[in-house]
Amino acid sequence: MKLNIYKNQKEIERTIEVDQYDIMFGTIEDILSIMDQIDLLEDDEGIYALIKDNLPKIKGLLKDIFIGVTDDELKRIKIKELVPLFQELMTTVNTSIGGDTEKN
Fold this sequence. Notes:
Elements: E1 2-6, E2 12-17, H1 28-38, H2 44-53, H3 55-65, H4 71-74, H5 79-96
Antiparallel strand pairs: 1-2
């Protein structure tokens, strides 16, 4: 997973990348409550609303995943880039807790 921090609307100041994320037990309840809401959403606008409604939880998760990211840096990420990152996180969580996975 990666998180771009922007200097301005077009210029990336830095990118933080993590190879894998081990979910701490203390955050699982918030993640699961968000996942319950995702099942009801059908489009990106719904996901944007979900992020907005759960902003404190999302900020905490981002700071837990991307160690060292600051509140100021979180203000300089693009919401459109959060959507795929959030979807990737939900897939990771689902897989980690033994949810449905596709088998080849």
